[in-house]
């Protein structure tokens, strides 16, 4: 028969809580004065207020931390990280995503030198990290040479030329061997002949900028040449202003004036023409002459008024329609003839002060 398990707490173990309660009941009651009771009550109130303040601060800190954590979680869910945001691309990632077409190779022709150098500069600008070292630039240019230019580059490699480690020296040698020595002279001739003409000021400025970069002119000469090529209408406004010293400021000012002139022309072109009540007042000389010419082509032969010279009877008054017709055609209001007016009409024989043609 297995032994009976022994209880952890024996039955005869006295209960300490009961004994403590009995001792408190048996303890003599101490009497407190009213002052002590008041002080004890104030202490209890202070302790309770401190405990409540600590609990409120703890609850507020916990709620604030939870709110901040919740806001951060929501922000992370709404906005992806910078590396995952397709609209936040750095310059290097943008240039890496754009694949430039391979540049055409240069065979040493002088006429193709400028185009080749421009294409190389575009690659250098598009990948600054790749072409940070001079050696990479020189190697890239050398790999795009053929024919005579490739033979020249191989001679530099064979002689271990110092210009293979210095890009500026390499470009000087390359320019001396394959560029057009008279290119600057040609560009200066082109920039002297560059005029605005019927183009807008912005189109003229774009061509002028391209020539100015290769002309070798200083800023004073460029400003002078640019102003000489502008149209007279723009110069009429510029001449009353203080001319800026830089080329870019003059270009911006000329473009702004040209745009405002174009706007003014559009406003006046769209204006409806109101006919004048004065028959002698024409819109302009051109419209008057064109109207007279077109009307004279379709009008019937002029029949001059027959006047009885013997009786010298004045003719009757003209109708308003006939007056308007003679005004439009420039005919005499008395006889209907052309080339004179009623004041100078030779067929007007009756005496008296001549009336002016109205």
From TrEMBL:
Renumbered to this chain, the Low complexity biased-composition regions fall at: 285-296
Specify where the region named Disordered lies, as residue ranges.
1-31, 278-300
Which InterPro entries does its entry note?
Retrotrans_gag_dom, RTL1-rel, Znf_CCHC, Znf_CCHC_sf
Q: Where is the CCHC-type domain?
A: 332-347
Gene Ontology molecular function, alphabetical = nucleic acid binding; zinc ion binding
Q: Which UniProt keywords apply?
A: Metal-binding, Zinc, Zinc-finger
Entry protein name: Retrotransposon-derived protein PEG10
